[in-house]
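Show me a record, fold above all:
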Amino acid sequence: MTWRSAAVNVLGAVAMACSASPAAAERQVLTRHVTPREQQAERYQHLPFDVAPGTTRIVVSYRYDRRDGANVLDLGVFEPGPLTIGTAACRGWSGGERDTVTIAVDQATPGYWPGPIPAGRWHVVLGLYKVGETGVDVEVLVDTFRDPVAAATSPLAPRPREPVRQGAGWYVGALHAHTNNSDGALAPQQLADKARAEKLDFLAITDHNNTVHQLSPVDAPGLLLIVGEEVTTPGGHFNVWGLGGDRSFVDFRVPGGDPAIDALVAAARARGALVSINHPASACAACTWTHAVPDGVNAIEISDERQESRLQALAMWDVLLRQGRRLTAVGTSDWHRGAAPLGLPSVRVWAEELSTAAILEGIRLGRVIVVADPSLPTPDLTARTGHGDARVGDLLHVPRGDPVRVELRGAPAGTRVDLLWNGEPIAEATVPADGTVTFNRHPAARGYVRIHLTRPDGTLLAVTNPIFIEVTTP
């Protein structure tokens, strides 16, 4: 591994269009040759550069031979501060989406935070996503400017007061979607417009490794916006919902199997956020979950474009449930671009009101049904005994051998219902015209029941989260 840094004065370089005259700049050239060994063993390379007092703008650009996708290098910038996992020094991340990014006192490239430019040792962070057999040379240009600016600001955009809507009920929403602050095609307002057009109640924006979307004003009456981040570690991705505040950030530089993942998840939970494993059996490189599953994880995605991946995610979920873990299954579109709907699939969450706190509490408690289409009626699952009843996410106490009546209401006529006990299909039925199906069980040991709803052609329409059964001695 080698790297070099050089600094030269450049007059009139890349001046901002709003400047009255070209600003003086200093250019630093950073070069490095990265190898497959580093890609596997030292995934994140931190290239230092210096910022002088009085700097108001930094422009970072990089170039390398992509070799038709054999080499893929991601880009981020850290301001002065510790480089240890969990640092607050991350100033932004664009992955492989942009070759040039700007960070200034009063503006920044999407995915990066504007604001004061502290003097000192900064770092360009290169994420070595792919490196070909012979390695690759990368050149990074850093230009620093002293522009006349009015003030240093990075105010968060105002959001509607919560609750957006009062009253308990099933709320439908999308929990995994990207804007142009990472690799999505739409700005936050456009994404919110899309969510409203699909009649969603809530939308979690989960850009990769940043929450800069909070800076964008969004006018979306009736839509709850949840601040999130997709944390893209080399050992798998996870969503964190319920972040908020200036520069909110969960670190992503944790290799697969590194126990530091436990501390990251615990820190996010300590801030009141929920953590969900994304696409645990993905076809994309470094997207499959290879970490252990920390105790603080709340949920897991069971949706994926590939049937094989969906089945693997369901199997992983059931293994965790049988171990006594209470992870909530969620379905998401992982929306980035194109005409595909945000809400295919989506979730129904039973919440006391339409607010961030209430929706996250509903997810935490497992009061969630994954639906393939937000226009479907809500298939409502209950389990009843002579001693009480329960809905998805609840715990029902049953004397050993007593009857349990498991009932599904609101399912489309003609669809098929599979009843699962501890993840194993044990009964099936076709939904009659009144939309109600009933099964009877006599549990002898603790476990859980849930429902899969499918079309006659086998297309999965809905998956409920479990109702947990605790068997007691009569």
In short: The two ends are 69 Å apart (CA to CA). Helices lie at 36-41, 188-197, 260-270, 307-322, 356-364. DSSP finds five helices and 28 strands in the chain. The chain has three domains: 2-145, 165-371, 380-472.
